[in-house]
Design a protein that fits this description.
By secondary structure, the protein is of the alpha/beta class. It is built from 31 helices and 24 strands. Belongs to the alpha-ketoglutarate dehydrogenase family.
């Protein structure tokens, strides 16, 4: 654009897009605009009343856009008017940025309105006389090109400072900001609902409040984590379902903690009140070995809407609050993949996460989850987040004590999600922002937040006395008539309902509750969903030990060729090329099959049978220890330029789907995601690999609360597999132990399998067994590091073709049984150390057994192997781990039972220690030497 007549011609309409972009760039980086424009904008900033804290926004000069339609280039305003017009646009922008700070959001009205100069007309130099002066409204959706300043300000306040306070101007996508403005500004933040819609809103408030009060009087003192004070959540959930169905949603998966959970179960998912009452009264069938409290339980149903059935699922959740969120995302992702995994599938399956105000800001799993929300292997096309913001957290009433940010929802700004703060006492505003949130998610496939600011009428639970810690707050709460009462009075005043109408709704619902029924039941019985998975074949109660894991040798050879067939003009790294060439020879039987090839063949055979395979973790494509190479990278192209090739995804046309994703640097959220995925998909082998086994420490809550106990508590079967590198090789306390002892301690009731395979054939059959048998149990595998390339841990193709997973591997050397006086039982890498030391010392009186499946322990098989050496007087358990760690304490009683008459049991291990391994290499070598000497020599 030419800069002629700069002083008089730059603000006419035809130039508006150019000028607004320049100003946006200037605010972001002044050096990015031409000198003459930078000088002009600098002068604007120096004018009296100019915004001192202006930030990039759009469009600053849009006020003049319409001028381009009115004629040729000409000067449109005098210099003084020019300054005021720009100031109007700055004022509009300030309300878009900061209006939420003045919004009427708190039902308790406890906070004073902060002083924000940028929202005052005087800050820009305006006087009362200017309020009647007309100005161009720019991009503000006022409804007219020009309006008096006073009317513009009033419209801004109605839009941004009413019951809705919206934050969105930090978003970098202009189209998304425009979209929000076009929906919020013309309506002034008002839903303009019909009388029928208003009655439905009141109905949702009434059933929410009435259920809580009914339970409060019927089950006095019992914990239920009441929703009273936050009943508008039920309004929001109703709108999620209605708007969701209207925009193509067919399934909704909900994750939430305990606050209001019973209310959501009954009034959103349609759980029969009688079922809930039975749980309160202890009448629920005790068909699970553990079970769980009622406010942790999940539920699913199919509900009817005007736009067709919608399947609802409320995920089971422990008291670890936000941990369920990535579990839900994983479940949703699996369901979306089942429908094709494209944008259409993501539009049909919606995740909804309900947070608490203190937890959403305080628990780091949310940051981890948000960080992968737009990545390839974890993105679900956007989540609707609902914060039940009772302004109190747990027992803390001062926000300074439970967060460092202004709003509890500020964490969502990291993914540029729009945030709707809304007064919970205004159900119409709650419904409106929920509708906008759903439509935004469906349009832009990204996260959106509804922050319902409400209060908590009772204590943290029904036995708590909140006046002890929040006396003034609870005086206001006690004086509050309740959201339902306020809205009912409003509708009566508007003539929408008769004076006795609200009370009649209460009477009707209480009568239904007395019968254990809902007032209106939207649940569809016996509805058959097209995309539902049948879990019945996998939930048998009896533990299934084996499956037919054999694969014909010809099939293995065929798949080996496919795994090593690399496209033309694909340049591999020299080391990788050598690995692939060796694997080709392994497939031909010319080289023994190593661990990496056996693992890839396990995946390949499952894929060829039609199973899916998903493997994720921080370095799974290559493998932390350079062994897997499931994803190959062209050395001449970056992988984001189609420079990667995945052999496992190119085996044959009708194969199962293969996914391999190097995850974000997270254990807790990623493992929770994979757990959720595995609970929704029984037909895929789902694998999470720790970069090092001890990194699973960061995901311990997932392991404790979901993986090991989900079936006992909730009846949730899951076939998730954990690969945890483990082994003592002098790498120090942080890279030696996968904390085997923790998994052993958590083992009971056939809840999972803990295995420590020692060779390539074992990992092949173990991974295949996980899918081919009709059972889904979690599998925890201690995987090796140095053994990955140890020739002794390799196998033949015949062992893959004709073998099976061996829970116990007996002595493989031809020892003379009667000479054996000591039997050593061990697991994992230490076996090869023991064998090498035995060979070096030429010992013939010691037999070595390998326990490959530590839990469930195969007593029968162990007894058979031990019985082969009738003269053995000593049974030794030898482990690399310190005495207080590893498998010893969990296995000691099993080994004691296995002893024959006259035999004694001993343990050889590193000394008990606080850390899992020493950090000094010399000390490691010394300990290793002492371990082997004691195991093979004189016992202490």
């Amino acid at each position: 654009m030419m800069m002629q007549n700069f002083g008089t011609s730059y603000l006419f309409g035809g130039n508006a897009p150019f000028v607004e972009e320049l100003y946006e760039n200037y605010l972001d980086n002044p050096a990015s605009v031409p000198d003459e424009w930078r000088e002009y904008f600098d002068k604007l900033a120096q004018q009296p009343g100019a915004a001192a804290r202006d930030v990039p926004h759009f469009p600053v000069i849009a006020a003049f856009a319409e001028q381009g339609k009115r004629g040729p280039v000409r000067t449109v305003v005098a210099a003084g008017d020019d300054k005021k017009q720009v100031a109007v646009l700055q004022l509009i922008n300030a309300y878009r940025f900061l209006g939420n700070r003045w919004a009427n959001l708190d039902p308790l009205k406890r906070q004073e309105r902060p002083e924000i100069q940028e929202l005052e007309p005087s800050f820009y130099g305006f006087t009362p006389a200017d309020l009647n002066e007309p100005f161009n409204t720019g991009s503000f959706q006022f409804g007219a090109d020009r309006a008096p300043l006073g009317q513009i300000i009033e419209a801004l306040k109605e839009t941004y400072c009413g019951s809705i306070g919206v934050e969105y101007m930090y978003m970098s996508d202009i189209a998304q900001k425009r979209w929000l403005q076009e929906r919020l500004e013309p309506s002034r933040g008002n839903g303009n609902y019909t009388p029928e819609r208003k009655k439905r809103l009141l109905d949702r408030l009434t059933v929410a409040e009435t259920l809580e009060r009914y339970l409060h009087t019927r089950y006095v003192g019992q914990k239920r984590f009441s929703l009273e004070g936050g009943e508008s959540l039920i309004v929001a959930m109703d709108e999620v379902i209605r708007t969701g169905a209207a925009t193509g949603v067919q399934e909704i998966v909900i994750g939430m903690a305990h606050r209001g959970r019973l209310n959501v179960l009954v009034n959103t998912l349609g759980k029969a009140p009688k079922m809930l009452f039975d749980e309160f009264e202890g009448k629920k069938a005790q068909d699970l070995s553990s079970g769980d409290v009622k406010y942790h339980m999940g539920f699913s149903s199919d509900v009817s809407t005007d736009h067709g059935p919608v399947h609802l699922t409320l995920a089971f959740n422990p008291s670890h609050l936000e941990i369920v969120n990535p579990v839900v995302e994983g479940s949703v992702y699996a369901r979306q993949r089942r429908r094709g995994g494209d944008d259409a599938a993501k539009a049909q399956i919606l995740p909804v996460l309900i947070h608490g105000d203190a937890a959403v800001a305080g628990q780091g799993v949310n940051q981890e989850m948000l960080n992968f929300s737009q990545t390839r292997g974890y993105g679900t096309g956007g989540t609707v987040h609902v914060v039940v913001n009772n302004q109190i957290g747990f027992t803390t009433s001062d926000p300074r004590d439970y967060r460092s940010s202004l709003y509890c929802s500020d964490i969502f700004k990291m993914v540029e999600a729009p945030i709707f703060h809304v007064n919970g006492d205004d159900p119409e505003a709650v419904a409106l922002v929920t509708q906008l949130a759903l439509e935004f998610r469906q349009t832009f496939k990204k996260d959106v937040v509804i922050d319902i600011i409400c209060f908590r009428k009772l204590g943290h639970n029904e036995q708590d006395e909140p006046m002890v810690t929040q006396p003034l707050m609870y005086k206001k709460i006690q004086a509050h008539p309740g959201t339902r009462k306020l809205y009912a009075d409003k509708l009566v005043a508007q003539g929408v309902l008769s004076a006795d109408g609200p009370d009649q709704i209460i009477k009707d619902f209480r009568a239904a509750l007395d019968q254990g029924k809902l007032l209106s039941d939207p649940v569809l019985s016996n509805y058959k969903r097209q995309h539902a998975n049948d879990w019945a074949p996998y939930t048998n109660k009896k533990y299934t030990e084996l499956g037919n894991t054999k694969v014909p040798k010809k099939e293995l050879q065929r798949l080996a060729k496919r795994l090593t067939a690399i496209p033309e003009n694909f340049t591999m790294h020299s080391r990788v090329k050598k690995i692939i060439e060796d694997r080709a020879q392994m497939g031909e039987g010319k080289l023994p099959v190593d661990w990496g090839m056996a693992e890839n063949l396990a995946y390949a055979t499952l894929l060829a049978q039609g199973y899916g395979v998903r493997i994720s973790g921080e370095d799974v494509g290559r493998g932390t220890f350079f062994h897997r190479h499931g994803v190959l990278h062209d050395q001449n192209r970056e992988k984001w330029d189609a420079g990667s090739y995945i052999p496992l995804a190119n085996l044959q046309e009708d194969q199962g789907n293969f996914q391999s994703f190097d995850s974000v640097l997270s254990e807790e959220a990623v493992l929770a995601f994979e757990y959720g995925y595995a609970t929704a998909e029984p037909n895929e082998l789902v694998v999470w690999e720790g970069q090092f086994g001890d990194f699973a420490n960061g995901a311990q809550v997932v392991i404790d609360q979901f993986l090991c106990s989900g079936e006992a508590k909730w009846g949730r079967a899951c076939g998730l597999t954990l690969l945890l590198p483990h082994g003592y090789e002098g790498q120090g306390p942080e890279h030696s132990s996968a904390r085997l002892e923790r998994y052993m301690q958590l083992s009971a009731e056939f809840n999972w399998e803990v295995c420590y395979p020692s060779n390539a054939a074992q990992i092949f059959h173990l991974l295949r067994r996980q899918m081919v048998r009709k059972q889904r149990k979690p599998l925890v595998v201690m995987t090796p590091k140095s053994l990955l390339r140890n020739p002794s841990a390799s196998c033949s193709l015949d062992e893959l073709a004709n073998g099976t997973f061996q829970t116990i591997i007996g002595e493989t050397e031809k020892l003379e049984a009667k000479k054996v006086t000591r039997v050593i039982a061990c697991a994992g890498k230490v076996y090869y150390d023991l064998v090498a030391a035995r060979k070096e010392r030429k010992l013939e009186n010691i037999a070595i057994l390998r326990v490959e499946q530590l839990y469930p322990f195969d007593d029968k098989r162990f007894d058979e192997e031990l019985s082969k050496f009738p003269n053995a007087k000593e049974l030794v358990w030898c482990q690399e781990e310190p005495l207080n760690q590893g498998a010893w304490y969990a296995k000691a009683h099993r080994l004691q039972v296995a002893l024959k008459k006259g035999q004694t049991l001993h343990v050889v291990a590193r000394p008990a220690a606080a850390a899992p391994a020493v950090g000094y290499l010399a000390k490691h070598v010394e300990q290793q030497k002492a371990l082997l000497e004691e195991a093979l020599g004189k016992l202490n």
